[in-house]
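Job type: complex structure
Entries:
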Amino acid sequence: MEKPVTWRNMSDNDKPTPQDQRSKAMQARIIRASITCLDRLGYAETTFARIQAKAGVSRGAITHHFPTRQALVAATAMELLAKALGPVERRAANADQPEPVRALITRAWGQVVNSAGGRAMVEILVACRTDKELYHLLEQRLHDWDAQSRASINRAYRGSGADPDDAELLWSMTRNFLRGLVLHDKFVSDPAYLARMVDRFAGLIETQLIPLPAKDMP
Amino acid sequence: MEKPVTWRNMSDNDKPTPQDQRSKAMQARIIRASITCLDRLGYAETTFARIQAKAGVSRGAITHHFPTRQALVAATAMELLAKALGPVERRAANADQPEPVRALITRAWGQVVNSAGGRAMVEILVACRTDKELYHLLEQRLHDWDAQSRASINRAYRGSGADPDDAELLWSMTRNFLRGLVLHDKFVSDPAYLARMVDRFAGLIETQLIPLPAKDMP
DNA sequence: CTTTACAGACCGTTCGTTCTGTTTTTAAGC
DNA sequence: GCTTAAAAACAGAACGAACGGTCTGTAAAG
């Protein structure tokens, strides 16, 4: 009752005990079901009962690891954020310079935003707008993630705009644009139109966001 | 009990009867409260009880005009969509040619998307993703509105891209970008960053979307 | 023997919807 | 115009379902 330690302190380099492994596996299982529910049912319908059924675990298992619904969704968001940094930190195949901007944007769309996890993240962000308790749990992490994402871009690209932080500005715009596409889907009857929007947008950003040669990277 | 005729047939040019006026006023009052609730509480917390309290009307009044929650939100969406076409169809002050693109985008952001109605619309679009009943009520209207919005842009601007429908593609991208900003707010600590994103984006679109002289308009 | 990991019953609240009344407007017969 | 019956516009009680959170009990790990 004292404190529901959702994440054990792993700073000391203990080997993970069997109990830790079991806990981590259970949490991962619950979070995976949470992502599916958020994507397919939305935040409001992502209830304990739904996740319980989808994950095939008991009610007690969920409430033990995540005392409130907001805590569960927050944990889900952190999991998604951790995975979402992949494309930004990826280097081009020849590693001599960063990935071309068009390829970067295309992959960010196809593999991150336009996936079950990406759509789940949109649900969480929308919920953050009105659920103060959820936002309180996530605010710091979202800001940290944003800073990390911008720093990664600054390391590998430069912007052609006036401001010195133009590269991260352009990348913030790109993330924002791709996220919006999840909702624009409802306006168009032809899904291919979204791909055209991505392509046209990538063409615009491509002229502004220039890959830095590897030797110029800090 | 037969059919809850929410909208009376006004195709014939009768003068609106007192009862119609009263109905319309009540519906507007409920919808106004619905917009406020959607903006401040989100779709999930926009309940009959909340709207009832905010609008100061009885439960029966709401259920009489809107038999289900989805019907109420759908009516709210139609109201918002009707208002949202304003900036697109507006002409420049001198009327010799359409409004400059930068001014158009700035106004679309400040007066449409980044307003209580704009944020409410984002909530509705997100809800459409997972609420099939709501989406069924709105799908056709959303597609029609999309076509109307694109047609308005095509009438007053031309795109500099390869495709003949480049203008409407660029405008779809702009709408999508501005909508996403409502959520990007949660990532940044400084709200002014959103304004910078709008400005940078407007600068990009400005080079691609060219106002047509009035004489060239159909 | 204590603590953690789970299991599942339980509870007060709130939800959307349905329903039965009451008042106001409309339409019809005269 | 006046009377009157039907219909529409509300008002508000009632209901079952489902929600999040809590609480007690059991097995496994430390």
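Summary: Residues 132-156 of chain A form the longest helix (25 residues). Confidence is low (pLDDT under 50) at residues 1-13 of chain A.
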